[in-house]
Design brief:
Number of helices: 6
Strand order of the largest sheet: 1-2
Largest sheet: 2 strands, antiparallel
Radius of gyration: 20 Å
Number of domains: 2
Helix content: 40-55%
Protein name: Transposase
Structural class: mainly alpha
Order of helices and strands: HHHHEEHH
Organism: Paraburkholderia dipogonis
Strand content: 5-15%
Length: about 120
């Protein structure tokens, strides 16, 4: 199961849905997720992820695909976008935490001063 989960676009609920198609009377989602070997194995992994950063400094995305749905808050229109395009748009927005500079500008300043 870990090998399957390491593939692009695969999540535990997708594996459970595939299992349910093959075994209609099989385990419910919670039972499947808590009683499988994967969960026993995963529960032995460390749960901490120490990353120190200022608010608004970084964006963390937990998404297994290449594309993501972006909803226009003014019109409600939904657009598919590639994650790279989303990251580029976010990096071009000024941040209060960066004294109203964009992350891209701050990155350029930082790399220019170290080079």
């Amino acid at each position: 199961m870990q090998r399957e989960l390491s593939r692009k676009g695969i999540k535990l609920d997708l594996l459970r849905n595939e299992y349910k198609v093959e075994h209609p009377d099989g385990y419910a989602y919670t039972w499947f997720c808590t009683r499988t070997h994967y969960i026993r194995w995963a529960s032995a992994l460390p749960l901490t992820l120490g990353q120190t950063h200022a608010p608004g400094e970084k964006l963390f995305v937990d998404y297994p695909g290449d594309r993501i749905a972006i909803i226009d808050t003014q019109t409600g229109e939904i657009h598919d976008a590639e994650l790279n395009a989303v990251a580029r748009r976010l990096n071009e927005r000024p941040r209060k935490a960066l004294n109203y500079e964009t992350p891209a500008e701050r990155f350029q300043q930082t790399t220019a001063s170290t080079g």
